[in-house]
């Protein structure tokens, strides 16, 4: 049985990420593992305040056991397992290594965005984790209902990588019974070939029809002014998650997010699922 990992730093948003991970694990029929990287910091989580359970044992082990029990109240996978693991060292490196070791198919983490970079380690490392993870990462900014029908927006632009993740996102959407909204994001530039973006969206449309993916829509918007237009469009169309591609390269200093995607990740208050351009394991994929 495959496994989903959720990164935990005991902040409120990482507690919510545990709930989301349990729902995703139910849909994908996987095990669930909570992982905390010890960095030498002391934590004083909100859930431990005025809670008699922590009056005697007030430490990260008791916090983790509390969150495992919380996850088990949501987790419904027959013959499944919810457990936890501690690691020590560099947060991104240790989470990535654990994901490799566990053969994780998805990592769920909270993120505080740019304004929260000085906060706990989830906030400061979420972007680097998304960039280096061996599998898709669901990054969550705030509490949103995740036990409702999901609608995933896939932005398609002129870069090939935006289309290469479609099979992976479609497989994930099918597994969690989500709808898909494919949106061509155009820009007013001289070098753009007329009709090229529409052709790319039509290519995705043909793929989804060929794979009998019934519940999807397509649309076109002008993204010249940046990600805010896409976010406004997403909210107006009841989108609950946005898919973004991550380009994997052999050079660790190469930017793996295109500027638009990078800015969108920082701005979005909707959950983002960041999918590596290549993903030989992961998810329930269409072949």
Automatic annotation (TrEMBL):
UspA domain: residues covered: 1-141
Any Pfam family matching the protein: Usp
CDD domains assigned: USP-like
Gene3D superfamilies attached to this UniProt entry: 3.40.50.12370
Xref: InterPro entries: Universal_stress_UspA (IPR006015), UspA (IPR006016)
Top-level taxon of origin: Bacteria
PANTHER family, per the entry: STRESS RESPONSE PROTEIN NHAX, UNIVERSAL STRESS PROTEIN UP12
Recorded family membership: Belongs to the universal stress protein A family.
Name of the protein in question: Universal stress protein
Naturally occurring in which organism (per UniProt): Xiashengella succiniciproducens
Lineage of source species: Bacteria, Pseudomonadati, Bacteroidota, Bacteroidia, Marinilabiliales
């Amino acid at each position: 049985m495959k496994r989903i990992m959720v990164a935990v730093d005991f902040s409120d948003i990482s507690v919510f990420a545990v709930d989301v991970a349990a729902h995703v694990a139910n849909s994908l029929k996987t095990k669930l593992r909570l992982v905390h990287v010890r960095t030498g910091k002391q934590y004083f989580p909100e859930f431990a305040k005025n809670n008699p359970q922590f009056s005697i044992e007030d430490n990260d082990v008791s916090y983790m056991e509390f969150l495992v029990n919380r996850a088990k109240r949501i987790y419904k996978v027959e013959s499944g397992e919810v457990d936890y693991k501690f690691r020590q060292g560099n947060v991104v490196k240790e989470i990535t290594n654990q994901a490799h070791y566990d053969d994780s198919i998805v990592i769920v983490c909270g993120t505080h965005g740019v304004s929260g970079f000085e906060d706990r380690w989830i906030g400061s490392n979420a972007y680097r984790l998304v960039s280096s993870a061996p599998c898709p990462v669901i990054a969550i900014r705030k509490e949103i209902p995740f036990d409702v029908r999901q609608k995933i927006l896939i932005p398609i632009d002129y870069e090939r990588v935006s289309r290469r993740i479609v099979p992976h996102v479609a497989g994930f959407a099918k597994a969690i019974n989500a709808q898909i909204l494919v949106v061509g994001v155009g820009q007013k530039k001289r070098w753009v070939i007329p009709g090229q973006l529409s052709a790319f969206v039509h290519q995705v449309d043909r793929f989804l029809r060929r794979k009998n993916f019934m519940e999807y829509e397509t649309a076109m918007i002008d993204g010249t002014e940046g990600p805010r237009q896409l976010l406004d469009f997403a909210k107006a169309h009841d989108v609950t998650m946005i898919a973004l591609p991550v380009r994997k390269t052999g050079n660790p200093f190469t930017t793996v997010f295109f500027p638009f995607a990078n800015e969108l990740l920082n701005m979005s208050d909707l959950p983002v699922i960041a999918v590596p351009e290549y993903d030989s394991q992961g998810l329930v994929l269409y072949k």
